Amino acid sequence: MTRLIDGKAMAANLRASAARAVSGLGFKPGLAVVLVGEDPASAVYVRNKGKATIEAGLNSFEHKLPEDVSETKLLSLIELLNNDNTVDGILVQLPLPAHINAERVLNAINPDKDVDGFHPTNVGRLWTGAPTLAPCTPTGCMRMIRSVVQKIAGKEAIIVGRSNIVGKPMAAMLLAESATVSITHSQTIDLRERCRTADILIAAVGRPEMIRGDWIKPSAVVIDVGINRVSKEDGKSRLVGDVAFEEAVGRVQAITPVPGGVGPMTIACLIENAVRAACIRRAHPIPEM
Ligand code: GUN
Q1: Fewer Cβ atoms within 10 Å of its own Cβ: the N or the C terminal residue of the chain?
Q2: Domain positions in the chain
Q3: Which residues touch 207 (CB under 8 Å, ≥6 apart)?
Q4: Right CATH number for 27-111 from 3.40.50.10860, 3.40.50.2300, 3.40.109.30, 2.60.40.10?
Q5: Average confidence score pLDDT of the chain
Q6: pLDDT for 50-72, tens place per residue?
């Protein structure tokens, strides 16, 4: 019997726990989200983030800038948010338009307000094992892995995908828990055989159903980070992961569904990071969440 890892329920619990923590703080953490342009998927994410932020009792500051905003203007806004004492966390929604240097923008965020954990200072802290704000998606994945794997130490973890947002930080987190970690990607030779060795398989390539059921061993725990919209024969569309779910379910030990798996956990971990950032910046003990 395959265990379904219910990200939606886990996320609801984490958000409720964060809300309880916030109500006991004596101050209201503030999270600023910056959206540039009109990308529909990004707009949905930002709306959901704003809703979850308010529901958890935080202040939500949304800054929507036009697609053609200059990099200088965006950097000025970041500077303003860095210096605003009511703002504890800053998130710039990616991707940014091509005329903006995303690296320059992310590097401009005060690392102590960097709730995405993308600033090089925080990347360095994560890889050296120092306390840090860590990227939300892999943080959520770790929580889901821990919910089904008793002992991560020594396990073979295969990550498919090498992004700065998921693949690389995921590797740092699994390594910190003493898994044996490999990052594979589109140019990996014999990817299928690599995947077959995984006790923990993280799929984060962004290719619909690329990882087939027979690429996964029965004892494996599968975390599917992919959110791909594909069209159906009736002209409508549906969301699928990077793993062929129907082939894997019934075959593997545990798997996250898409939708309802990793996605909701990312937002819950963002709220947790915002609360953590607020507590650290205000020298308040970090509550259990
Ligand atoms: N775009 C896709 N995922 C993310 C994320 O985790 N953070 C930000 N800022 N943008 C994203």
Answers
A1: N
A2: 27-111, 136-263
A3: 226, 228, 242
A4: 3.40.50.10860
A5: 98
A6: 999 999 999 999 999 999 999 99
Position 21 scores a pLDDT of 98
The DSSP bridge pattern shows strands 200-203 and 221-224 to be parallel
Residue 165 CA, closest ligand 1 atom number = 6
- Measured in degrees and rounded to the nearest 5, phi and psi for residue 67 equal -50, -35
The closest of 8, 15, 4, 81 to 263, measured between CA atoms, is: 8
Q: How many beta carbons lie within 10 A of that of residue 110, not counting itself?
A: 18
Asked if the domains 27-111 and 136-263 are classified in one and the same CATH topology, the answer is yes
CB 15 within 8 A of CB 55: yes
- Class for the domain spanning 136-263: alpha beta
Atom of ligand 1 nearest to the CA of 91: 9
Residue 139 confidence class, pLDDT cut points 50, 70, 90:
very high
Could you tell me which residues are beta bridge partners of residue 92? 34
In whole angstroms, what is the distance from residue 205 CA to residue 184 CA? Answer: 10
Cα-to-centroid distance, 224 and ligand 1 (Å): 16
Name the DSSP class of 222: E
In this prediction, residue 162 has a pLDDT band, given cuts at 50, 70 and 90, of: very high
Q: What is the pLDDT of residues 192-207, one digit of tens each?
A: 999 999 999 999 999 9
**Tokens for 79?**
């500077």
Torsion angle, alpha carbons of 5, 11, 16, 21, to 10? 110
CA of 93 to the centre of ligand 1 (A): 5
